[in-house]
Structure formats: C-alpha cells, structure tokens
Amino acid sequence: MRAVKVAIVDVGSNSVRLLVASVKGGGVRELHRDRVYVRLGDDAYSLGRIGEAKLEETRRVAERFVRVARKKGAGRLETIVTAPGRQSSNRDELVDVLAEATQAPVVVLTADDEGRLAWEGAVARMEDPPKTVAVVDLGGGSCELAIGAPGRGAAWVRSVDAGALRVTRAFLGGDPPSAKRIAKARREIRTLLESFDTQRPDAALAVGGTARAIGRIVGRRFGRDELDELAARLAKGKAAKLTEPRGITPERAETLLGGTLVLSETARRLGSKLEVGRGGLREGAALQLAQSAVAAA
Q1: Are 81 and 206 in a shared domain?
Q2: Same domain, 182 and 100
Q3: Which of 16, 94, 146, 279 shows its CA 20 to 30 Å from the CA of 204?
Q4: Does residue 283 belong to any structural domain of this protein?
Q5: Which of 168, 173, 130 lies closest to 149, judged by CA?
C-alpha cells in the first residue's frame, strides 16, 4: 500500500493543533506538527458559547495551518472539533468558521468518537501491545477512557467533562490554589469518574498534552503515587518553577495541577500505572482519513 499524506487540524478546548503525517497501512509517521493555545474552553464554560474574538482567532490559526499542511504535501485535510463542539451553544457557527477557513471537511466528534480515535492512534504506535489496552485521553474540556483489544478496536468507551482546563477553572484558583480547593477538586473528580468502572487492563496509556508534560517531569510511566507526589509539589509553589526547566509552556503549566488530579484518580480507578502514549487522537484521525482516501481512490 502506498503512503498517503494527510493533515488533521484538531480544535480542542485548550489549543488548536496541526498534524501532518504520512500514513501507510496501520503506521503513522509524523511529518510536521504545530500548536496554538486559543482556549476556546474559557468561553464555552463562562459564556456557554464561543465569542467573536476567539472565533476570529481560531479562523486565523486554521487558515495558517492549512497553508502549512499544503506546503508539506498533504493531499487530504480534515478538521476535527472535540469538547468545544459539544459544550458550546454556537457549535454551528464554529463549524462554519472552520469550514470557510480550511475549505475542507469539519467533523464535530462525539465523546465516543473521540475516545475510539484516541485509542486507535495510541495503540497503532505501540511496538508490542498486550491483549487489552486502556487509553486515557485527557484534553482541556473532557477526559475519555477507552478499552479494547489490538486488532479488534475499542469495545468500551466512557467520557466525562473533567478536562484539565475545565477542572482548573471550575475548582482551582490561584497559583498555588488552597488546600481546601484541591481537596474539593479531588472529591468532584472522583464523583465525575464513577462511570470509569471497568476491568483492569493489561496496559494503560495516557495521551494528550497534560500526559506528555507530566512525563517530562516524572518519567514516561507513572501511577497514583507518582501523580499524587507531583500534585503535592505543584500545590506548594509556583508551577513555573517545576515546568520552565523542562520546556513546558506557561499555558500548560497553568492547568497541570488540574490534569494531574484527573490522571491520579483515573489511575486509582484502573488499578494500573499509566504510560505516556506515543500516538493519540490526531494519529487516529489521520489513520481514518488515509483509509477513506485509499478506499475512494
């Protein structure tokens, strides 16, 4: 099978991202990636809709990403919209802006779609996957957990509105937040994650920007103990002291404690350590787009 060059523009609560990749069979090779923090989730949570200023910023970012993708040789391009498309009242307006900016298909993913694509993208990058794999996709606005068998797909998917940005805005305040706020956040997260009640997998991957940032600090494999220790360190002082030396952006640092709490409680429910996945949502979307391109040829 020939390689297919595709591009995915991923519009999330925290950032808008670009992946240009060469896909051959079940393999995804990254050619280029980019990211701009737009924080659509801030409008979605506080206003219930995305304001004109952020819509315009999203338009500009999407237009630039398309130009880059075409220069990199992407023959097919698709925009995927995650939590902002599910949590804002003017999702149709967002879709129209993106469709005009990219002149390409725009898909608002359901939570189930997001979990399954993240699972496919993460498992595709595993070298020797075991019988069952769990993939935790922690974004800015939501967190998905998908479990399945490699070669057969995700058989079980759940999603909760417990993204790193959403938790930060709803429950945490200040840098660092008070111990009382952190304790309340943990309680709220545990309640939200009650639907993450499933069997223990043979392996568990964590994907998304928060997971990658945590991996830079504590290593690529971490469990509840390591995450709780990191949360305690973040709660004691300015997050920047811990994140700047490791090249973690200020925008990511701002929501790192909230995301760490979500992953800690997820690891507790799974009874398993988490390993930072080498692929995720965008890789899964790239696989799907390339497969449709080959089928249409």
Answers
A1: no
A2: no
A3: 16
A4: no
A5: 130
Closest among 51, 49, 60 to 98, alpha carbons compared: 60
What CATH number is associated with residue 151?
3.30.420.150
Over residues 249-287, the pLDDT tens digits come to 999 999 999 999 999 999 999 999 999 999 999 999 999
DSSP label of 17: E
What is the C-alpha separation between 211 and 199, in angstroms, rounded?
Answer: 22
Burial 189-227 (b: 16+ CB within 10 A, else e): beebbeebeeeebebbbbbbbbbbbbbebbeeebbbebb
Q: What is the number of residues in the chain?
A: 297
Locate all alpha helices (DSSP H) within 128-249, ordered by sequence: 164-171, 179-192, 209-218, 224-236, 239-243
Q: Quick one: 59 and 142 in the same domain?
A: no
Residues 36 and 177 placed together within one structural domain of the fold = no
User: What is each CA distance from 19 to 68, 78, 189, 267, 280, in whole angstroms?
Assistant: 10, 10, 31, 28, 11
Token digits for 265? Answer: 């409680």
Residue 106's domain spans which residues? 4-110
Q: Which residue has the tokens 């298909």?
A: 105
Q: In terms of domains, do 63 and 105 share one?
A: yes
**Residue-by-residue DSSP string for 53-94:** HHHHHHHHHHHHHHHHHHHTT-SEEEEEE-HHHHH-TTHHHH
Euclidean distance between CA atoms 211 and 267, whole angstroms: 12
pTM: 0.94
pLDDT score at 198: 84
Q: How many domains does the chain have?
A: 2
